[in-house]
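anyone seen this seq b4? input:
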Amino acid sequence: MTNDGDRKRDLLLVAVGFNLILLQLFVIRELALTLFCTEIIILTITVAYFAGCSLGYLLASRIDERWIRPWLFGVVLVHLPLIPAVRYLSGQLAALESRWSGANELAIPLVAGITALGLTSFYTVFLPRAISHGGSSARSLARCYSLELGGAALGLVLALSLPWFAVLVVLYQVALVGIAWCLRFSRPGLVSIGVCAVLVLALLPALDHASAVSFYSRFNGGLSSPRIVHTEQSPYQKIEVIDTNGGRTLYLNGLELFNTRDLEYFNFFLSEVPALLRPVEHALVIGSGSMSSLRHLAPYADKITTVEIDPAVIDVSKRFFRQWNLYDELGDKWNVVIDDAKHFLSTTSERFDLVVVDVPAPHYVQTGLLFTKEFYGLVRARLRPGGLISVYLTENYPANHPERVARCRAGRQIVAALASVFEQLCVLDTNHYPYGFAIAGDRLGFTKSDVAAIVRQRRGVRAKIYSTDEVRPTIRGVEPASYSNLDIVWDLNLWFLPYDLQQN
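predicted toks r here
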């Protein structure tokens, strides 16, 4: 090989490593949205990703040189559009569910198969071929692999430092054009592949929009005529705001966090009910979402602090949900802290009369940690005497139906975690959601009748209310949710399995 050929081979390996790490990011962050981005799904897709790498290594010595160039054209045209296409496909499968039972579950093997066969295999054919050009020596292996790892390291640094996710998408296509140059494409070939790359980048927002509309109109019951108002990738998650004929909805990583219809009652139970049960000088809201809890707390609290790890969620809520949260009417009464909730509670010197835990459901380990006895212990340390914590459960809590209580495993583990930290608690089972709610403290200072009187004032709302003495028998023998027992995450990740299979 000439010196020029050696340099191009080296640059080729750097570009391959660079795109491989970006592709893994795209796959996990975009494709996993279809499957709610839970840890189990991420593990499945990661396994498929490396299966694709193994397929590329297998093909390296078998594929003819003349097929690599057209394969590269296909990669430029298909890789990025394939990501929203999987979301579109998942929506179509969901639409078939009524006619073909089990169609929805095909999304998991299809995503894994597409990842293994259509994405990563292309890049991994180059490393064995480059090593063989160096004589297959240990020195050649070390050099070639180091170059690929260097490219991956560069991609990882940029992914962690660049604030705009869209820039990574552009760099991905630029690297593909660079690979074409390293493969000694002719000038017309380079121009052609560059035009293809630009065309894909220009069409990608429209493709992503179309896939989101298809997905949300069909998946999980479907939305009526969804209109994508806003979408963005923050360092933590994909944030989407969707309008329908029935209102506005906020999604984080494909999971509904708030809608302006029935979830307004969610904030009534989670925030307003506990605020009415005792005087609140300073309330703490952990998590923001749409920030609708502010409107429910504001009339009863002298000061409100919101702790949110993702500033992009705060910004979206201010822009698109201001008429539901009324944040701009609070003035100095409201304060925002951008921090991890565990870190904030461990380091702050402030004390609170009410702590409202308004975080996404524990579909992930990181959110699951906020439903544990250790986290509730952090909250207890920051409560004033007589202070309360308000949380929601992941399911209804039918405490007066022992045969159904046994099925509410995640809800009972959350209640058990509260009961292991606080002396008293009150559980509400409502008629509006698949959720229950719990209020806990060392001294509640109110009765079931007080709670019932508040609930009766809200038209159309009903709730069954259970005292400490009524709830404790239902959690006897239940291991509390904790850092070492996160079964609640496992339960929610198995949403696609029948209940009996989950228990086995």
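The two ends are 60 Å apart (CA to CA). The chain has two domains: 3-221, 259-503. kinda curious what u guys think
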